[in-house]
């Protein structure tokens, strides 16, 4: 049965355009050694397809199938694919809980910042396992929001982090998913797990301004901000204050922000 999970970030432009800055090099390097030129890859939750295009470049003699449950995002992904002139990419509307593919269809299934938004990540991993060939791989990467912190310390960013985690868990999701990946993959029956972690840093002025101003807008103009108010975790005025706090931090010449991603590669066995 397809689940109707609530996507905490929402699909407004402020979130989607931030996601479009992601690349295979910055988000899938932990899986690079497991991708052959002729690999057939399933990209779960491909979003605006900026990572998908990079995966297709690595597997230039294979194929990449990118899936999303939202037609709106698939339209944005199609624009990215067309601009890149990537002929080995297919985009399809589908749910990770009920993949429309035969058993043993892919060499690798990849999911970036997906499991953190699901109410049943283990079920999703089991479905990913079903469509990957024996001896193939599942590669997953998720953030750990608990580790998100700034310098100088900001009461408004601390408040944002607390509210974000409350909203995500209200939606039945796990915002600190990075640390849970090992357990979820084990429960899903994957073997020979390789667990790594990496850090995103926002310190250079362009990166800092983009990250800070993006979250400033997302606090007041995306589903996250609306949900925070609707669920009673903040008022509209509090979300506006948090938005201003992000802008203030982003403008500081000494501003610094980092957080950890958990990463797991698992082998599929039958």
Structure notes:
The protein has 270 residues and is of the alpha/beta class. It has one domain (13-267): Rossmann fold. Helix content is 40%, strand content 23%. The chain is built from ten helices and eight strands. Strands 1, 2, 3, 4, 5, 6, 7 and 8 form an eight-stranded mixed beta sheet that branches. α6 crosses α10 (236-250), α8 crosses α9 and α8 runs antiparallel to α10 (236-250). It is globular. It starts with 12 loop residues before the first helix and ends with a strand. The mean pLDDT is 97.
Secondary structure elements and pairings:
Blueprint: H1 13-19, H2 24-27, E1 40-44, H3 50-58, E2 63-68, H4 71-84, E3 89-93, E4 106-112, H5 121-131, E5 132-143, E6 149-151, H6 155-170, H7 181-187, E7 191-202, H8 205-221, H9 223-230, H10 236-250, E8 256-267
Parallel strand pairs: 1-2, 1-4, 2-3, 4-5
Antiparallel strand pairs: 5-8, 6-8, 7-8
Helix pairs in contact: 6-10, 8-9, 8-10
